[in-house]
C-alpha cells in the first residue's frame, strides 16, 4: 500500500499476526497485548494507542475495499490489511427489529435459534459480571457455549441492575455463583463488593461472588503494564492496606483475551454436573427434530397471495 511509513507497515503486519492467532479483540485489548509482548517498539502511551488506532483503521478500510472489489473471492487479500471481523467495538452495537419475509423463513430461524436451558436441573446457577463492556467480545464465545448470562456494571452497578438481579435470583432454587471480572485498582475492588452487597439485599438471599480477574499476581505472571494509584482516589488508602504501600494497578483489558476465556470456561465448567447436562442435550435433540419436521410441513403449505393493488382513481 502506497503512502504508508515503514513503522505503520510493521505495526499492521504485527497486529494481523496477533489477531490471526486470537480474535476478535477490542482496540484496547490489542494495545495491551502488543505492549506486554515487547516484540516490537511500542509503549503504553496515548501516542502509541493513537498510532495503533490509525494503523488498524487504514488496514481494515483496505480489507473492506478488497472485499467490495472482488466479492471476497480474491486469492490473497492486499498487503497491510486486517479483516474487519478481527476487531470489536462493543460500544456501537446496532439495535435491530426482527422481521422475516414469510412464515417459512421464521420457522427456519426458530429451527436454527432454539436452544434448551441446560442449567435446569443443575445443582448450580452462575452468571459472569464485568466491570466494563470492553472485554465482552473476548468472553462471549464461552458464555454462548455454556448458555451463561453476561452482565456489565459500567463502573458501580446501578439500582436498576441490582433490582433486576434481585428479582431473578429470588426465584432461582439452585446455589448461585457470580464470576466477577474487574480492574485491579481501588475502585475495581470496591465495585465488586458494592454490587455483591446490593444484589444480595435486593434478592433477599446470599450467593457467592468469585473474582476471576484481575489478581495482583497477574501483573508479574503476564508482564502487565503497572500503573500507579491515583492520589485523588478516595479508596486508595484501603487498597494500599490490602495490597501494599507501593501496590500497582492494572486495567482488566490488559489481561490476554485467551487467558480471560480460559478462566471463565474453567470456572463455569467446574459447576456443571456433566451427566445431567448431557441428558438435557439429548432432550434438546429430540425437540430440534420435531421443529425440523414442522418446518418441512410449513414449506409445503401454499403461500398467501399478496393483495392486488387498488386501481388508480382519476382526478
Structure write-up:
The protein is α/β, with parallel strands linked by helices and 315 residues long. It folds into three domains: 6-89; 100-122 and 273-300; 123-269, Dna Topoisomerase Vi A Subunit, Chain: A, domain 2 (3-Layer(aba) Sandwich). The chain has helices at 6-21, 27-37, 46-70, 103-113, 136-146, 159-170, 186-203, 218-221, 236-243, 257-269, 274-299, and strands at residues 25-26, 87-88, 124-130, 149-152, 175-181, 208-213. The longest helix has 26 residues, at 274-299. The termini are far apart. The mean pLDDT is 85.
Keywords for this structure?
315 residues, alpha/beta, Dna Topoisomerase Vi A Subunit, Chain: A, domain 2, 3 domains, 4-stranded parallel beta sheet, two-stranded parallel sheet, 9% strand, globular
Question: What does the average pLDDT come to?
Answer: 85
**What count of structural domains?**
3
Residue runs with pLDDT of under 50 for 5 or more positions: none
Ends apart, CA distance between termini? 61 Å
Based on Cα principal axes, name the global outline: globular
Number of strands: 6
CA radius of gyration is 25 Å
Helix content: 40-55%
The first-level CATH class of the largest domain is given as Alpha Beta
What's the CATH architecture name of the largest domain? 3-Layer(aba) Sandwich
> Strand order across the biggest sheet?
4-3-5-6
CATH topology of the largest domain: Dna Topoisomerase Vi A Subunit, Chain: A, domain 2
Amino acid at each position: 500500500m502506497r503512502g504508508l511509513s515503514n513503522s505503520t507497515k510493521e505495526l499492521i503486519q504485527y497486529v494481523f499476526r496477533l489477531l490471526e492467532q486470537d480474535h476478535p479483540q477490542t482496540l484496547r485489548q490489542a494495545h495491551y497485548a502488543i505492549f506486554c509482548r515487547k516484540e516490537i517498539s511500542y509503549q503504553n502511551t496515548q501516542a502509541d494507542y493513537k498510532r495503533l488506532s490509525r494503523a488498524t483503521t487504514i488496514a481494515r478500510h483496505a480489507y473492506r475495499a478488497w472485499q467490495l472489489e472482488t466479492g471476497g473471492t480474491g486469492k490473497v487479500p492486499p498487503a497491510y490489511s486486517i479483516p474487519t471481523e478481527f476487531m470489536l467495538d462493543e460500544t456501537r452495537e446496532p439495535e435491530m427489529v426482527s422481521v422475516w419475509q414469510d412464515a417459512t423463513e421464521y420457522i427456519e430461524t426458530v429451527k436454527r435459534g432454539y436452544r434448551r436451558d441446560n442449567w435446569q436441573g443443575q445443582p448450580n446457577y452462575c452468571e459472569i459480571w464485568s466491570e466494563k463492556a470492553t472485554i465482552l467480545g473476548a468472553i462471549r464465545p464461552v458464555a454462548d457455549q455454556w448458555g451463561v448470562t453476561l452482565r456489565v456494571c459500567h463502573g458501580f452497578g446501578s439500582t436498576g441492575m441490582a433490582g433486576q438481579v434481585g428479582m431473578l435470583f429470588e426465584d432461582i432454587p439452585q446455589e448461585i455463583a457470580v464470576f466477577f471480572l474487574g480492574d485491579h485498582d481501588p475502585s475495581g475492588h470496591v465495585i465488586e463488593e458494592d454490587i455483591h452487597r446490593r444484589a444480595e439485599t435486593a434478592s433477599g438471599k446470599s450467593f457467592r461472588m468469585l473474582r476471576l480477574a484481575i489478581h495482583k499476581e497477574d501483573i508479574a505472571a503476564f508482564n502487565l503494564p503497572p500503573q500507579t494509584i491515583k492520589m485523588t482516589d478516595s479508596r486508595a488508602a484501603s487498597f494500599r492496606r490490602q495490597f501494599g504501600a507501593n501496590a500497582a494497578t492494572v486495567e482488566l483489558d490488559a489481561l490476554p483475551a485467551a487467558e480471560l476465556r480460559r478462566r471463565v470456561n474453567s470456572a463455569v465448567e467446574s459447576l456443571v454436573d456433566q451427566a445431567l447436562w448431557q441428558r438435557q442435550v439429548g432432550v434438546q435433540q429430540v425437540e430440534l427434530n420435531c421443529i425440523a419436521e414442522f418446518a418441512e410441513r410449513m414449506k409445503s403449505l401454499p403461500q398467501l397471495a399478496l393483495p392486488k393493488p387498488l386501481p388508480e382513481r382519476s382526478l
